[in-house]
Amino acid sequence: MKKVEENLIEMKNISELMLDLAYSSVLFSNREIAEEVIELEEKIDKLYEEVLSQILETCREGNESIDRAKIPLKVADSIERIADAALDIADVVLREIDLHPVVKKSIEESDEVMVRKEIKKSSFLDGKTLEASKMSSEIGMKVIAIRRGKNWAYGPSKNIELKAGDRIFARGPKESEEILDKWLGLKSE
Amino acid sequence: MVGDIVKKEKSKKEKEKEEDHSRLEPEDKTVRELLTEMKDNSELIADLAYAALVYDNRDLAEEVGHLESRMDNMMYQIRLKSMLSARNLDDAEQLSGLLQIASSAEKISDAAEDMVELLELDIDLKSMLPHILEKADEHIHTIRVLEGSDLVGKKIGDLAIESVTGVRIIALRRKGRWIYGPDGKDYIYANDRLIVGGVEEGYKKLRKVAKSKENWKGMKS
Hints:
The structure holds two protein chains of two kinds. Helices cover 60% and strands 13% of the residues of chain A. Chain A folds into two domains: 2-101, Phosphate transport system protein phou homolog 2, domain 2 (Methane Monooxygenase Hydroxylase, Chain G, domain 1, Up-down Bundle); 111-185, Alpha-Beta Plaits, CATH 3.30.70. In chain A, a hairpin with a 2-residue loop joins strand 2 and strand 3 (151-154). Chain A is an alpha+beta fold. Chain B contains eight helices and six strands. Chain B folds into two domains: 14-120, Phosphate transport system protein phou homolog 2, domain 2 (Methane Monooxygenase Hydroxylase, Chain G, domain 1, Up-down Bundle), CATH 1.20.58; 137-210, 2-Layer Sandwich (Alpha-Beta Plaits), CATH 3.30.70.1450. Chain B has helices spanning 2-23, 31-54, 58-85, 89-116, 129-133, 156-159, 161-165, 200-210; strands at residues 139-144, 154-155, 167-174, 177-180, 187-188, 193-198. By secondary structure, chain B is α+β, with helices and mostly antiparallel strands. In chain B, the strands form two sheets. In chain B, strands 1-6-3-4 form a four-stranded antiparallel sheet. Chain B is globular, with a radius of gyration of 22 Å. Classes of the chains: A alpha+beta, B alpha+beta. Chains A and B meet through helix 1, helix 3, helix 4, helix 6 and helix 7 of A and helix 2, helix 4, helix 5, helix 7 and helix 8 of B.
């Protein structure tokens, strides 16, 4: 079941990233982010198929009872459906229809805000890794995507270095946006 | 006499209004308020479901059920209101996008509810799931708040827990009762048990303060 566990964890992580990306693609009417959600959904589908085969295989070999096998099966199924729902949200952005103005307002009024910020040239964040930036550990701002020129990093690892000119997309509590703005304005020494 | 008739008509109208309102239970909210709540719930409900599984906890599972039926109800309201507000094709198109987002949020709550149905099976979840879920990026933990901790008697919002630690309180248990998805106005008291989700470092930081081993530094002025 070790492989199953690893795949389930990856599915859970990806599904959470997808939902964050989906809502922010709506908020910023951003097609690129929406398209990434579609790609991640394909990844989830693949992982789901793998998990299914792995669970069935373990049962066939008699290493796991059917009852216990239901646990990862059901969790995988729910995660796959959550990912599907994220995809449907992103799909709204990809259709050529204007979004109802109420949609963005609703997302903005949520307890959790989605923000898009730029790393300025003189900022002390320039050259820091995500982990060293302490955005997540100190102010609860989770960076869900970074755009550098034409390139994107979705669900960036904590070792990625921020560079001046990067555009970061983050999710976090409302009161942290102000702190983040302050941080972004801080000059490097 | 005339006054009486007017009064009667008014009361009839009021009655109709009341009936209308009851059909739209529990509250009469705007489309915007409904959508905001549905989005927030879609994020909270998955956390609650994972927490229910990790702790093999029926109370949390039950709350997932409540939230899910609330989502169904909100979906119904938002659909009715959208239909009533469409005046032309452009409106209808825009609203169909809005409804697609709402129904996605509702789908997430369905998936979360199905997940907690595992608790009804007679299987020992503890031997498998905590193990799996604890390796994920986001961890779920419980923290007991001890007397003398800096957290005691303060509002969650004033403490700015999430923005200081990156950890959010999914639910808290006090004297046998649960408060789910508490907001900034809710207080923390001694002996509260918090169920939190978030990054590991933040959890450790919060636990130290809850155990009164460290002072809270992030108090909002």
